[in-house]
Amino acid sequence: EKHQFETEVNQMMHLIINSVYKTKEIFLRELISNASDAINKIRFMALTQPEVMAAKPELEIRIVADAKHRRLIIRDTGVGMTKDELRRNLGTIAKSGTSDFIQKLQNNTADISQIGQFGVGFYSAFLVADRVTVASKNPTEDMQYVWQSTSVNQFQIMEDPRGNTLGRGSEITLFLKPEAAEYLQESRLRELVKKHSEFTQFPIYLWSAKSETHDEPDEAAIAEAKHKLAELDAKKAEKAAAKQKDADDDAREELEEQLKATKSVTTTSNAWDLVNQNKPIWMHNPRDLTEDQYQEFYKTFYKSSANYTHVAHFKGEGQVEFRSMLFLPDKPPAGFLTREPDANTASPIKLFVKRVFITDELLNFLPRWLTFMRGLIDSDDLPLNVSRETLQQSSALRTIKRRIISKALDMFGEVADRGPKEADQLMTHFGTALKLGALEDQASRAKLIKIIRFTSSTLKANATSPEDVTTTTLDGYVSRMRVGQKQIFYLTGVTPEEVERSPFVEVIVERGYEVLYMTDPIDDYLVNAYTEHDGYKLQHVGKDGLEFGDETDEEKKSLKQHETEYKPLAEYLSSLLSAHIGSVKISTRLTKAPLALVANAYGLTGSMERIMQAQALAGQADGMAEMYKHMKKILEINPYHPIIRKMLERAKALPPKEEGSPKKGSADRALDQIAKVLFHAAAIRSGFGIEKPAVFASQLERVVRTALD
């Protein structure tokens, strides 16, 4: 019987047959997926009609490449199709949205891999074949039927002249186009099954050539040895008759050894080879899986030689149902925070639909800070074929994304709750990423802040061995705060040595307060965004606004006295250094250093200034950065330091400066030089850079020369 394709099928087949799409390989995924669906249907039917399994109890998919006749055959033991179903399923389209898809195909704006979304994945066979034959046997009919088409206009259905060769199921034969010859290669077929259908729940067998090598007697060498031995025997008989000695014993031994000669022979035979041996372990109950099984799967699936450190295996239920496995690797991939994702970047999350691999091109599925994770998603509620553009707009996938992020946060929390050492190790490897998450992802910030740890001056001072944990969370810090303490003290810098030796922490540590040391470049950004924790302000100890909370009346009185006493020096320094500082204050944070340079409450710290400078050199600076850069600092002086006392005496002795005088500096040129050298030294000790190092070096040399004279 000959039939005409309906108009939409006709249009689509014409476009597919002449397709120039590069993703032609998806045809095998589509046909295997259809075969899997057919097997699922017969399995469901067998629940109430067990007799349908009698003809073919096996549930499987088999693939044969016939290179001689350029045929590719995909056979399944599924439900098969009746004659009427062959006509309806393979000749008409009853799914909405197909017309729009065909229109996009015509305009070259459609992703060909979407084809299965419209229930017409079968037609992807025409991407690689110019003729397709489908033999099918349904258990409700006695006859086996054949559907075939070599034209974009029509197809025909007939009784299979071979009879009932299938028992049950379908057999699709693709007569491949010359340019599709690669799909006759066993290695290519195996690669595609592994890539797209590795976790199909039914076994997929590939008709494979097997080579075996074995040893067998080397008949030629043995025949040669026998011939030569016969010659030696004849010579021996002649010599014996002539009463001569036989001198051929060594040659005889070699020939007798040659009688045992063997050769390696390689024979080739064909056999069915199971391709999808890795079963989808995410479909199992986590309680039924061992750690070794998880590790083996992780190494195989991600081609990793290292173990993962933690795994979350869970099922998402509700509006969208899915199964997922998330792995925390032993360490993050190199440069994962600096690489910009593109279409060629594989996502750390692989998407499956009904155990069929769909894509690992889920760009921006995970936020940047979480891209060190590895995992997979498998959902029955997503269409089998979705384009990258469709994925970005999928509400179902957005729901899954929120669940995945939430589960990852739970995983980090569980790791941190195991103890300080585990939490510290998590921060060592993934701390920068977690801080970036707290900075960029406001929805995740509260949970991440509970996990993030910083080095503690108190814990570091109390450590008795290198194994002792010296980091703490903000919650841990708050739990140890002194009575009356108003702020959480922290200091940012480049290295641990720099922050520990900073003049800013001197008096704070001496007074028994805890300081958090922050040496990760992202820390400055984080504390600018997260300024308060549990009702306490985060206070940079190198910024204006520092309050201890335990100041006595006597200390407050002493501060006022010092402000009055040191007013001449403060006015002198304010005038001399007016290009750099906005004010001079009596310091309550210094004990050993004479001076310190402090940023105002809204200014940049030294470490942040260096970051901004690096960005400017890279061409990434903006107007705000320039504004912050030119904000004047506060110079704090230590009233108890002998250098400051001496400078006060010299400042008091200065004659009054004439009003309106354009002359820079004071009458005491030596004092001016000392003040400038001390200012630049204070800037360096406070973590700031100096604009003109050569000028500073010259000033220092002049001071030394004066002292030597």
TrEMBL record:
MF annotations from Gene Ontology = ATP binding; ATP hydrolysis activity; ATP-dependent protein folding chaperone; unfolded protein binding
Q: Which residues bind ATP?
A: 30, 34, 76, 81, 89, 95-97, 117-122, 388
Question: Which residue spans adopt a coiled-coil conformation according to this UniProt entry?
Answer: 220-254
Q: What is this protein called?
A: Uncharacterized protein
Kindly name one Pfam family recorded for this protein: HATPase_c_3
Key words, A-Z? ATP-binding, Chaperone, Coiled coil, Nucleotide-binding
Q: Its family?
A: Belongs to the heat shock protein 90 family.
Entry-linked PANTHER family: HEAT SHOCK PROTEIN 90 FAMILY MEMBER (PTHR11528)
Q: Which SUPFAM superfamilies match?
A: ATPase domain of HSP90 chaperone/DNA topoisomerase II/histidine kinase, HSP90 C-terminal domain, Ribosomal protein S5 domain 2-like
Q: Which InterPro entries does the UniProt entry name for this protein?
A: HATPase_C_sf, HSP90_C, Hsp90_fam, Hsp90_N, Ribosomal_Su5_D2-typ_SF
